Amino acid sequence: MADRLVIFDVDGTLCDTCEVDDVCFCEVAAEMLGVPIPPSSWKAAPDITDAGILAWLWHHHRGRSPTEEERAGFVAGFELVLARELRRGSDRFGAIAGAARLLARLAETGWDVAFATGGWGRTARLKLRAAELPVEPLLASADDSANRPEIFRLARERAAARDGAPHVRSVLVGDGVWDVRVAAELGWPVLGIGLGERASRLRQEGASAVVPDFGDADAVLDLLSACGVPSRPR
Known about the structure:
The chain is of the alpha/beta class. The protein contains nine helices and six strands; from the N terminus they run βααααβαβαβαβαβα. Strands 3-2-1-4-5-6 form a six-stranded parallel beta sheet, sandwiched between helices. The longest helix has 21 residues.
């Protein structure tokens, strides 16, 4: 067992699926609610997870939480729409550059790996398979909680149970400012992934280390060992 753990987000971090995920999610929500739901209009939600966004949309448009039947129907419909888009073409379901190679290198260099996602477990597995990445490390999702910090905390807890002992160092790797906020709240080091404006936002949020992708595995491994807990923006 390794004593160091990397916890990866999925969309935008391992899978280049943010755009297709957003469009499909909003399509299903619009159909169920009977109102237009523009892509990325969910960013005002207090919990940036599929469960949190779903609850926010239902409260905004219906004044209540979704029922369990509505929730289950949404997840099933979302999975069907993603599968439809995958059949139309796999170009929007690729892996982030270097992701597969990095995962292999981590196992060789003394790191355990876990995945955590604010998305539903079944849709995350669809996207991981489409990107030809493993699904076994996915340990926590929006099925467990609407709260993003709780999802990542659960992933670390389950990784420790899986691996037989707590890890000395746990690093969160994510592409969203909400991932940096999770790391700050939990007191974990964070490695951001993004380029251009996204990279700037991650640094502004407090990430000291940001990479455009995983193409330079040696540099990423060095940063995983060196990156720190994000400093909260003033």
